[in-house]
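Need a sequence for this fold. Nothing fancy.
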């Protein structure tokens, strides 16, 4: 399955990283009955600056007592590139997420990032 999703970033971290940024997530998943692996790239853009993150992990789907699917996912990420203040960005970490409806999901990203121009602020 190939999918592209768009949304907005809401940062809850101490540094408010890319808060309000437009997100485009491009994903490919190899799932059987809602379980398997997925991988992709996330581009965040705000005020003409952007970052690209590569991620990969696993998807797990179980049934609730009401027999509705509960889909969660988790994995790891690595920063690949950035522009503007984010030029030279690096970092890595993990993510966990869940489907909140048939067409929407939330993701919690954890990890560390650094960028030479951010350190100069």
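Here you go.
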């Amino acid at each position: 399955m190939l999918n592209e999703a768009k949304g907005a970033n809401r940062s809850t971290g101490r540094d408010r990283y890319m808060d309000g940024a437009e997100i485009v997530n491009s994903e490919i998943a190899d799932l059987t009955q809602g379980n398997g692996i997925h991988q992709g790239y996330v581009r965040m853009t705000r005020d003409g600056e952007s970052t690209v993150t590569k991620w990969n992990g696993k998807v797990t789907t179980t049934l609730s007592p009401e027999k509705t699917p509960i889909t969660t996912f988790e994995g790891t990420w690595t920063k690949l590139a950035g522009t503007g203040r984010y030029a030279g960005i690096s970092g890595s970490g993990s993510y966990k997420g869940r489907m909140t409806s048939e067409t929407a999901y939330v993701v919690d990203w954890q990890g560390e990032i650094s960028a030479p121009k951010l350190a100069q602020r």
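For context: The beta strands are 2-8, 22-32, 35-46, 49-63, 69-82, 90-99, 105-114.
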